């Protein structure tokens, strides 16, 4: 048998095409994916149920490097939250353009549920009420996603022609080149956050 | 004199067209803006110097409702930072789709500089070193932008078919409907952050 001239359609190829479109244009449409893969839009529905399904495939890409530590009741909760936050940021920082798309859709991917479950178990065990567990998960989520966007910020986050005051100029002068600046700021903020949650 | 059939080209109309394109497709091109405004791409260059200029026009839109409080050395620094963070989030929450575009370009708009200057003055006066002033500005930035994205999250941030553990289920059950949930989580996180910065 000869090889097919085009690779077979699969959820993987659909996700890849959607990702390419988001990276190139900021969004995707079913028609755009079909055109890119040289298939009829209707063929896509043999593999995905629709747009929401494709968003979840993209969420899985963004989360593919999130490492959830093995459950260990003896470990300080701060270390578990910090580990999750670090790997969550690193994983999403690869695809900053996906972030608004993912945050505007309901979460329905197993990777995401596994991560949020681990956070909820850890915080509950540490004595957080259910309401504060939800708020703390939102806090970690917002901080991590904002920080993932900061990883994609330019090396010089400010134009030199901007006239800044002496306090801001002094602060900016301390910034290391990327990615060190973003990493350093993230670790500082993570420590602040965990301190604020503990007191 | 008769009125021109099309409104005159202006930076405002260029910004509006760019914003429409980002909201519809996630991004914009000079060609796309020209097509939308029915002008030649070269005409745009009488008003803007290029793509970076247009991104700054979009930043000004996103920041147009940021209120920087009048400088008052007698006011607690936490209150000033909280005020800025609240209005910054509210202003950006109107345009979540702009966020990755804005964070991937160097800041060069007067509104943004005014806000960052106010943060730098306030933090420096409170005794933060220049390096910690920069880190704290990054922390506020990341948290606010992530929280602005959370405002655009769906009312039900989770699909019901996702199987979640009992701790996460209990936490999710405490969530008020949007926008109360997002507002409540933001205020909780802001308090955590300010507590962590103070200790």
From TrEMBL, chains A, B:
<dbReference type="Pfam" id="PF02909">
    <property type="entry name" value="TetR_C_1"/>
</dbReference>
<dbReference type="InterPro" id="IPR050109">
    <property type="entry name" value="HTH-type_TetR-like_transc_reg"/>
</dbReference>
<feature type="domain" description="Tetracycline repressor TetR C-terminal">
    <location>
        <begin position="72"/>
        <end position="198"/>
    </location>
</feature>
<dbReference type="GO" id="GO:0046677">
    <property type="term" value="P:response to antibiotic"/>
</dbReference>
<keyword id="KW-0804">Transcription</keyword>
<dbReference type="InterPro" id="IPR004111">
    <property type="entry name" value="Repressor_TetR_C"/>
</dbReference>
<keyword id="KW-0805">Transcription regulation</keyword>
<dbReference type="InterPro" id="IPR036271">
    <property type="entry name" value="Tet_transcr_reg_TetR-rel_C_sf"/>
</dbReference>
<keyword id="KW-0678">Repressor</keyword>
<dbReference type="InterPro" id="IPR009057">
    <property type="entry name" value="Homeodomain-like_sf"/>
</dbReference>
<dbReference type="GO" id="GO:0000976">
    <property type="term" value="F:transcription cis-regulatory region binding"/>
</dbReference>
<dbReference type="GO" id="GO:0045892">
    <property type="term" value="P:negative regulation of DNA-templated transcription"/>
</dbReference>
<keyword id="KW-0238">DNA-binding</keyword>
<protein>
    <submittedName>
        <fullName>Transcriptional regulator, TetR family</fullName>
    </submittedName>
</protein>
<dbReference type="InterPro" id="IPR003012">
    <property type="entry name" value="Tet_transcr_reg_TetR"/>
</dbReference>
<dbReference type="GO" id="GO:0003700">
    <property type="term" value="F:DNA-binding transcription factor activity"/>
</dbReference>
